[in-house]
Amino acid sequence: GESVGLHLPTLSVQEGDNSIINCAYSNSASDYFIWYKQESGKGPQFIIDIRSNMDKRQGQRVTVLLNKTVKHLSLQIAATQPGDSAVYFCAENILGGDKIIFGKGTRLHILP
Amino acid sequence: DGGITQSPKYLFRKEGQNVTLSCEQNLNHDAMYWYRQDPGQGLRLIYYSQIVNDFQKGDIAEGYSVSREKKESFPLTVTSAQKNPTAFYLCASSPKPGLAGGPTASWEQYFGPGTRLTVT
C-alpha cells in the first residue's frame, strides 16, 4: 500500500485566507518530501521540497512543515488566491530508494 | 520553450490495438519516468529509466513497455494486454537520480503536459 496519504480529499478556503494541506506518511526511513500542484488537465508542478533534517522551509507564499515525531507534513499557502485552485500532492523518497511515491492528492477549492 | 513534451494531448484507440505515447525532453536530464493517473487518484509509477538503454519496472508495469534508446526520448507503449488502459499518462524527467547526487540532491521531477488516452 501507499506510504503517503492525505487527511482530506477536498479543502474549501475563502479567498484571502490561509490554506493548510496535510499529509501523513508511515515510513520512518522517508528522507525527502516534495509538494506538487496540479491544475486541471495539466502535469504537476513543483512547489517546494524539504529534507528530513529540516522541520520548516519557506518559499514564496508557501511554507512546508515537517513533524517527524508524528510523521506529518503540511503545506501552508498564505493569502490564498483563485490561481491556487488545484490538486496538491505530497510525495516522498525513502532513503536508499530510487523513486518518489505520490499520495492521492487534496483538491483545494477557493471560495469567492 | 524548452522542457518536456508529450504528444498527442488526446489519443483515441480501439480495444486490442497497441498505442505508443511520445515523451521528449531537451533538459539534458538523465532520468525519465512514466506515470498513470486515474480520475481522483494520485500518480502511479509505470516505468522509469535512470540512464540510456536501461529501465526498471514501476508499480504497475504489466501491459506496458518502454524503450530508452536516446537520452531525450522515453516512449511508452500501451499494449493490448493492459486491461484498463483509459487514463491520463504523465511523463517526467529529473536531472539525476537523487540518490546519486548525495545528501543534498533533489528528487524534483519535471512533468510534461500529459496525454489523455481513451480506449473504446
Brief write-up:
The complex is a heterodimer of chains A (112) and B (120). Chain A contains no helices and 11 strands. Chain A has 112 residues and is mainly β.
Task: Describe, in plain words, how this protein is organized in 3D.
The complex is a heterodimer of chains A (112) and B (120). Chain A is mostly beta strands and 112 residues long. Chain A is 0% helix and 55% strand. Chain A has strands at 4-5, 10-14, 19-25, 30-38, 45-51, 56-58, 62-67, 72-77, 86-94, 101-102, 106-111. The relative contact order of chain A is 0.34. The model of chain A has no long low-confidence stretch (mean pLDDT 90). With 120 residues, chain B is mostly beta strands. In chain B, 0% of the residues lie in helices and 47% in strands. Chain B has strands at residues 4-7, 10-13, 19-25, 31-37, 43-51, 54-57, 64-66, 76-78, 87-94, 110-111, 115-119. The model of chain B has no long low-confidence stretch (mean pLDDT 90).
